[in-house]
Each structure stands twice: as C-alpha cells, then as structure tokens.
Design goal:
Blueprint: H1 12-29, E1 33-37, E2 41-42, H2 60-75, E3 89-94, E4 97-102, H3 104-112, E5 117-123, H4 128-140, H5 147-162, H6 167-181, H7 189-205, H8 210-216, H9 224-231, H10 237-246, H11 250-262, H12 267-280, H13 291-301, H14 304-308, H15 312-337
Length: about 350
C-alpha cells in the first residue's frame, strides 16, 4: 500500500469548536427568510471545482410523502411564507451565485409539486470549510440517514476535522490504521498523532470505531441497483453486502431484489437462497436465445410437481405473478386478433 502523506496535525476540539462558534455567529447575523427561484440555486462547489456529496437517502416513497405533506400545508396557507415548508433551506452567496448548503430533499419535494420558489436563508461570507461543516453536521444529526450517506458524511466529517486533503486520503489512512492494529504495518510519529485525532472523531460521533467503520466502506462500491434498493429501504445493509458478494450480473440482482419486495429473508436465508439458485441453474438455460425460447423454457420449469412442493408463501407469490402474466398475455392476444 502506498504511503499516506502525513496531514497537518491540529486539535480536533479547536477545529470543530471554532467552526461551531463561527456557524452560530453566521446564523445569528442572517435570519431573514426570502423566496428564491429554485432555478437560481447551484450545487455547493468547493476548491478546485469539487462538488460536495449530496445526501440521497430519501426513498421515493418518503420523497412523495414529504411532497404531499408540503402540498397539504401550502393549501392551508401555512408553513414559511405560505409554501408549506416548516424549515427554510440554507444557501450561501459565492461569486455572485447561490449555492445550496443543505435542503436538497425539500427542494426536490417542492419541484414535484410544481413549485418554482423555495424559502431560504442566504448566508454571506461562508468559507468552504464552514459550508462543509454545516452540511456534514446536518446530515450526521439525522436519524433517517441511510448507510451509504452516513458513511460518506462521516468520511467528510473526518476530512474536515483532521485536515485531510480529500476523502480518498481519509479512506487510505483508515485502511492503514486497520493494518497497523492487525500488526501488518507501522505508523510514524505524525501518523500516530493523526490516528489519535481520528479516533477522537469516532468517539464524538459515537457510532463506530475505526475497524468497524473500515468494513463499512464497502458500501461505497455497491452496484447501482443494490445501492438504490438500500436507499429505498427495500433491503438492509447486511442484505446489500450479501448481494454484493454473491451477485455480479444485473439480471440476477434484479431478480433477487424483486423477490425481496414480496418475501422477507434473513441474511442466512438469503445466502442459502442465492446459493441454491445458482446450483439449480442449468447449462440449457436460454440466456442468449430469443424471447420466445426463454418464455417457453421458463414456463416448462414450473410444472405441477414443482409447484406442489413449494411452501404456501412461495405459492402465493407465484400465483400473484402468474395473474400478472395472464393479463400481459391477454393484452398481447388482443393485439394479435386485431
């Protein structure tokens, strides 16, 4: 593993406390809420044109629920400036542009309702460091943050608190610490101080230690289909890890995700199911054949004997899907008869 370039050593307490104090002053001096055109709001851009991570944790159902609640309050003429929002979004003015610090999901919900404006507090003279702190703190304080966003928010918080160059440097150092604690590598004196500082950050966050968090980093490499299912709360993080380790083919992933929508499986049950599914796959399966061969193949696999051997829960699931297929066939048949 390449050597990690030692970072500038600083006191975490001083860094975070100074930013908290600076945030309090900025918010105290900027309390005016104004309506801002949504189209004028840009993403938060840091040094070297780097865009900061957005929280993407709202599932589609939660976003729709938020939009519905906002719409209801707006019709009643309540909420900030009659918009239905209970809290304004936070923006900063930089180089003549308005950049969003936080409030992405509120903006998305308003856009779903067809709204063109959002109530906002516009902050002046907010540094990149303070903007990063305000967003990562806001994310970490949420109870409904999913595993993916929680992991990125913690990485950004460590980057800020310990003055790492970027998130990749944080990940590299955490992996080096893991190897150090396993007796596989060593740390120089500056890295030992940095190790202490990073450990202090985890202690303040109160959710992980370094080793357990390093294992969590695999969530950042999830297949997009698995990641979206995790965001939509269709699967747990533990199930996502099973899918990541056992499935590579998008079609296989989609098939298992569809199953999990209708059937609850523990992690061990999911592992066994996937293993059995792979064993039952034969060389005769028409993977690369045309759609007619595939339909014929799969219909023959579901014999009465196979069906009768299934559990009642599996039978109910298959019955449901067969009714959907029947409707599709009826639609196709109507087209043929024409």
């Amino acid at each position: 593993m390449a050597k990690v370039k030692p970072q500038r050593i600083t006191s975490i307490n001083n860094t975070i406390d100074e930013l908290k104090a600076e945030q309090e002053i900025v918010l105290k001096n900027n309390t005016t809420v104004t309506l801002v055109d949504i189209d004028l709001i840009h993403e938060l851009k840091l040094e070297n044109d780097i865009l900061m991570h957005n929280r993407i944790s709202y599932s589609k159902s939660k976003l729709l629920e938020l939009a519905e609640n906002i719409s209801k309050l707006a019709k009643e003429g309540t909420g900030i400036l009659g918009t239905g929002l209970l809290n304004p979004v936070m923006l900063r003015k930089k180089d003549g542009k308005l950049e969003r610090i936080h409030g992405e999901n509120r903006i998305r919900a308003l856009k779903l309702n067809g709204s063109k404006q959002v109530p906002a507090i516009i902050l002046e003279n907010v540094s990149d460091e303070l903007a990063r702190f305000m967003r990562s703190s806001e994310n970490l304080n949420r109870e409904d943050l999913n595993t993916y966003d929680e992991t990125l928010s913690i990485l950004e918080h460590i980057q800020l608190a310990c003055n790492f160059k970027d998130i990749e440097s944080v990940k590299s150092f955490l992996n080096k610490v893991k190897n150090f604690q396993a007796g596989k590598s060593s740390l120089n004196e500056e890295e030992k101080i940095l190790h202490k500082n990073v450990s202090d950050v985890f202690e303040k966050i109160g959710r992980f230690d370094i080793i357990t968090f390093v294992d969590r980093l695999s969530v950042l490499k999830l297949d997009p289909l698995i990641k979206q299912a995790l965001i939509d709360e269709q699967i747990t993080y533990s199930q996502a890890k099973v899918l990541k380790s056992k499935l590579k083919n998008p079609n296989e992933i989609t098939k298992i995700l569809e199953l999990l929508k209708n059937k609850k499986l523990s992690v061990n049950e999911l592992k066994i199911y996937i293993d059995n599914l792979k064993k039952s796959t034969t060389k005769d399966e028409p993977v690369n054949k045309n759609i007619f061969d595939k339909v014929n193949y799969y219909s023959k696999r579901l014999s009465k004997k196979v069906y009768s051997s299934l559990s009642q829960e599996d039978k109910l699931f298959i019955d449901l899907k067969l009714k959907e297929i029947e409707k599709i066939y009826l639609t196709i048949n109507s087209k043929i008869e024409k």
